[in-house]
Fold this protein.
Amino acid sequence: MDRFKTPLKEIMTHLPVTVSAGNSLLELKHIYERQKFHHHILVKEDNKITGIVSLVDFMHAIGSAGLNDDDPHYKKKVKDIMSTPVTMLDGNTEIRQALTIFLRNEIHAIPITENGIVNGIVTSTDLLRFLSEKSD
């Protein structure tokens, strides 16, 4: 089987971490500190994706804030740093198409939706991991 024809739903991370545009950067900091991943967080309102925040976006926004939760940088809101619009794909989209989108748009994460509702996320790391695995 052509591995590039594999649907994204087979390699996506299910139930990705999401936040609201109104959440503070302090809340993002706590997610980054406590979660197993360290990359992209989806911004969701009414179960619809409205933006995405990368760790780079977060680090740039907090500047020299450090770990002190009382730093004023952490009072900023997610809406102030999130990227929009967000490229989204259906879980049945083939890896080949996702690779083209990643390269063309220079992005590293794509939310996977069904009827506009988020089901998962695929990152460039997910694709590299899948494609580097030995095929049977």
